[in-house]
Write a structure and sequence with these properties.
Organism: Vitis vinifera
Structural class: alpha/beta
Helix content: 55-70%
Strand order of the largest sheet: 2-3-4-1-5
Shape: elongated
Largest sheet: 5 strands, parallel
Protein name: Putative disease resistance RPP13-like protein 1
Number of strands: 5
Keywords: ATP-binding, Nucleotide-binding, Plant defense, Repeat
CATH superfamily of the largest domain: P-loop containing nucleotide triphosphate hydrolases
Strand content: 5-15%
GO molecular function: ADP binding; ATP binding
CATH topology of the largest domain: Rossmann fold
Number of helices: 14
Pfam family, one: NB-ARC
Length: 364
């Protein structure tokens, strides 16, 4: 399987597999075939793996071994799905045979009897093959689950029914460019979007940067925010780390504090929005909202009201893992951020693991 499955897709896939294993129809068939203990173990292992997926997504960009683990998990998940689909087919076939009405006598009865025997023999041969497949999948699941400890993947979930996202440290606009590998092409693309002005467009251009956790969305936004051409192009710039808590009052107040750090503001949304509108009035501004999860259009619309007072050419960058946020916030084309190249990943890992001196030695 080529490509890469991001956290949202992979976690959803694991959820689907757990639901399949727990389905009454499949469970009934598993008990009849005396493989219910194996499927129960699959369910337990899959739930434990699910609990560390978020941590794995955050660590994969600095640890290639975690990235390989995610690739292996993805391939294994597809194989598990194939087995469960085969189980479902066998269960349906058995139900059809059981539900078969009493056949008529004579030649037709002989045909029905022959067909039933054929289906039963086919199922028997299939079960022999299925047994070895189940053993193989169980061993692979146990192995990939055991690797969690060696990779230091931790449970940051809030139980199976309600995932809680890991609260990371708030981001800032500061970045050390000498420590960034790759992203030259991506930075150039974002700069082109920021520096392009369309006098006929009165709306603030909202550019979502979307991608899996840890892929570098914040870093790309930092690189663009601190570019000299961007500093010269915009009258005002502000950076806000939003994260899980999308509180319109808090975000509005933080934008104001970013624009005027020495001013004190009241906790009144109406007054804050009026103040922000006055500060942005006829000014070309750039606002970065980092790590946005909220999909509520009404809250987003209220937040953006003061920004409509800005000058034409104003831009807003939203970084997010959630494609649902893109549909709510984006007024310009979204920028889907892809993973680093293999060479850039290797350079980053070498620096983290061995230090700058060793990295320079390797490249010379």
């Amino acid at each position: 399987m080529a490509g890469f499955v991001g956290e949202a897709v992979l976690s959803g896939f694991i959820q689907k597999l757990v639901d399949m294993v727990a389905s009454p129809e499949l469970w009934k068939y598993a008990r009849e075939e005396q493989v219910d203990s194996e499927l129960n173990e699959w369910k337990k292992i899959l739930m434990k793996i699910y609990a560390v997926l978020h941590d794995a997504e955050d660590k994969q960009m600095t640890n290639p071994l975690v990235k390989m683990w995610l690739h292996d998990l993805r391939d294994l998940a597809y194989d598990v799905e194939d087995i469960l689909d085969e189980f479902a087919t066998q269960a349906l076939r058995r139900n059809l045979i059981v539900a078969q009405p009493q056949p008529p006598t004579g030649t037709v009865q002989s045909i029905f009897s022959s067909l039933s025997t054929s289906l039963t023999l086919s199922a028997a041969w299939s079960n022999l093959s299925m047994g070895s497949k189940i053993e193989e999948i169980t061993a692979r699941l146990q192995d990939i689950s055991a690797q969690k400890k060696h990779l230091d993947l931790r449970d940051v979930s809030a139980g199976w029914s309600g995932r809680k996202r890991l609260r990371r440290l708030p981001s800032t606009s500061l970045v050390i460019e000498s420590r960034i590998y790759g992203r030259e092409t991506e930075k150039a693309a974002i700069l082109a979007m920021l520096l392009k002005d369309d006098p006929s467009d009165d709306e603030v251009c909202v550019i979502p940067i979307v991608g899996m956790g840890g892929i570098g969305k914040t870093t790309l936004a930092q690189l663009a925010f601190n570019d000299d051409k961007v500093k010269d192009h915009f009258n005002l710039r502000a950076w806000v780390c939003v994260s899980d808590d999308f509180d319109v009052l808090r975000v509005t107040k933080t934008i104001l504090q970013s624009l005027s750090p020495h001013t004190r503001y009241a906790n009144n949304l109406n007054l804050l929005q009026i103040e922000l509108r006055e500060k942005l009035y006829r000014k070309k501004f750039l606002l970065i909202l980092d790590d946005v999860w909220n999909e509520n259009f009404d809250e987003w619309d209220i937040l953006c009201m003061p920004m409509r007072a800005g000058a034409s050419g104003s831009k807003l960058i939203v970084t997010t893992r959630n494609k649902g946020v893109v549909s709510v916030t984006g007024t310009c084309s979204a920028y889907p951020l892809q993973e680093l190249s293999y060479d850039d990943c290797l350079s980053l890992f070498t620096r983290q693991a061995l230090g700058q001196e060793t990295l320079m030695l390797i490249h010379t």
